[in-house]
Structure formats: structure tokens, C-alpha cells
Amino acid sequence: MRPPAKSMHDAMSRIPTSASDSFVSSAATSEPATVQFRQPCVTDASAILRLVRESGILDCNSLYLYLLLCRNFAATCAVAERSSQIVGFVTAFRLPDRSDTLFVWQLGVARSAQRQGIAGGLLDFLLPPLIRSGIRYVEATISESNIASRRTFDALANRFGTVLKPTDGFPAECFPSAEGAHEAEPGIRIGPFTLTQPDAARASAMRSARPRQTNKPSEVREGDTFACEEQAQSCAGGVPD
After folding, report:
1. What dihedral do alpha carbons 54, 207, 127, 203 form, nearest 10°?
2. I want to staple 185 with a disulfide (CB 3.0 to 4.6 A). Which of 100, 141, 159, 213 is the partner?
3. Taking Cα atoms as reference points, which of 30, 26, 35 lies closest to residue 82?
4. Which of 90, 108, 91, 81 is closest to 23 using CA atoms?
5. Given the DSSP bridges, would you call strands 98-109 and 137-141 parallel, antiparallel or unpaired?
């Protein structure tokens, strides 16, 4: 999505600026038969960081930050796993001043897992329990050039029968010149989400084995059909195949 912010890698004070950060990794592995969606645990942090580094697009932060996300924000994050390897992840958090809003920060899928609904599957797994706990809106920021990421969020709004509207983000001048040229990051806001939305119930049923402390994964086999399959080729990929 944008060049890694090397000067901020170890700065925990860094404000996440690209909620919709997304990529397709260059790593390629054989495709096992199942994808498992679950909440992350601290041992997943290094794998998430590896995917971020391999992307060349996502802002790369310190391992410590991903450890905190996996431990303290696990309820609003998720990973996709195949054959004991993390092939996708989404990191998000509730906005402190608006507890009904989920800010999606980074969303990434390995190249080996594209065209299989992984990005949409991660969001479909994550959202229904959060909707039940009061989440009504999803926000993110997306640079104008990241068409694939915009399509991912457009598809999310369509699946849940709600709307996507522009909102405030970060203008280009917010980014220090030392980090190099950086596009503006306009914001988006999706919602409202409700428990009566048909696709929310469908998504909840498909991802019903949501893990808690045990991190027991829910499984999706390759033959399963996702409403997001049309957008799976982007898989939140900032770089089209």
C-alpha cells in the first residue's frame, strides 16, 4: 500500500495510519485442503510480522507491537491458518472514544492463499461476535491507488447489506517527509451493522466455532462457497496478481 515506515518500526507511540493496509505476499507454498480462522495468540506475532515484511507494502512495525495486538487485542483480531502456517491476518481495535466503531488497521493475505476468500473470510469471522457486543460501524483508511483494498471493503458492505461512506482520514502532509512520498489516506466508514442482517447471520453460522482461550480454530474447506469469493482474487491485496 505504501513504503514501510522504517523510522517508526520501534516506536510504540506511532499512530496506525493505514487501517486498510493490505498486500499479496510473494511467498508461495503448496495449498492444503483447509483454512482455519481463529483469534491470534502471542506465538502468532512473529508470523504476522513476517507476512508484513514480505509484503513490501504494509507498514512494518516492531515485533513488540504485534505481540501486544495478539495478546491485548485478540478479540478484535484474527488469523487464517493452513497446515500450521499463518497465511492471512487482520488487526483491528475498538475506537476508545466510540466503542461502537471497529477500526481495521492492517489486513494481509499470502499469495498462496489468494483467490480463496481469505480476506473476506477473516472479516466474516471477526465481525458477527463484535456486532453482538455492540459494534455498529467499521472504519479504515485507504489510499486512492489501492483499488483492491477498496473493493474488499465495498464487498464487505454489500455482504452485510449496509453502506460505505467517505470520512476523515489523513492528508499527505500528515506524513513526515523523511519517510518519502506518501499518498493521502482518505477514511471510509461502513455501517450500520445490525443483528438482523441476513448475511451477518450467515457469516456467524459459517464461523460459529469462534475460539476463545483455547484458540480452537474454525475450519473452512476449499469447496466451501463464500459471498466474498468474487473479491477473493484481491484478498485485500494491494498488488494485483
Report:
1. 120
2. 141
3. 35
4. 108
5. parallel
Cβ distance 36 to 217 under 8 Å? yes
pTM higher than 0.85 for the full model? Answer: no
187: phi then psi, degrees, rounded to nearest 5: -95, 155
DSSP string spanning the chain? -----GGGTT-TTPPP--TTB--B-S------SEEEEE---GGGHHHHHHHHHHHSSSPP--HHHHHHHHHHSGGG-EEEEETTEEEEEEEEEEETTEEEEEEEEEEEE-GGGTTTTHHHHHHHHHHHHHHHTT--EEEEE--TT-HHHHHHHHHHHHHTT-EEEEEEEE-GGGS-GGG-----EEEEEEE---TT-HHHHHHHHHT-----TT-PPEEEETT---TTGGGTTTTT-SS--
Biggest distance spanned by C-alpha atoms of the chain: 48
Q: pLDDT for 141-192, tens place per residue? A: 988 877 778 889 999 999 999 999 999 999 888 877 655 677 888 999 999 9
- pLDDT tens for 66-110 read 999 999 999 999 999 998 999 999 999 999 999 999 999 999 888
Report the C-alpha gap between 137 and 131 in whole angstroms.
9
